[in-house]
Amino acid sequence: MTFAELARELGRMWGAAPATDKTVQVHLFGIRHARDLQGYTLRECCDLAEAAGRPKSMGQEIHKMIKLSKFVKEAP
């Protein structure tokens, strides 16, 4: 996926989530799209969060989930 497509998807996931699950959706995004995000630096993840209309600090969460994705799988 392109940077713009990833930003749209992150914005969509955030927008569709109930208020209590917004950050969880950011985590899920990082795990679900880890392959597309491989090689993204922390700064690029922060830029992605900002492009999606989220606080830049959410990029830290995305970056962590890229690394964590090696150890977890999304439940069916």
Structural class: mainly alpha
* Sheet with most strands: none
Shape: globular
Unreliable spans are: none
Integer-rounded radius of gyration? 11 Å
Report strand %. Answer: under 5%
From the N-terminal CA to the C-terminal CA, the straight-line distance is 22 Å
Mean pLDDT across every amino acid position = 94
The number of distinct β-strands equals 0
**Share of residues in helices:** 55-70%
Number of helical segments with 4 or more residues: 5
> How many domains?
1
Give the H and E element order: HHHHH
Main traits of this protein?
76 residues, mainly alpha, single chain, 66% helix
Verbal overview:
The chain is 66% helix and 0% strand. The protein has 76 residues and is mainly α. The chain has one domain (3-68). The longest helix is centred in the N-terminal third of the chain and has 14 residues, at 3-16. The model has no long low-confidence stretch (mean pLDDT 94).
Short summary of the structure?
The protein is mainly α and about 80 residues long. The protein has one domain. Helix content is about 65%, strand content about 0%.
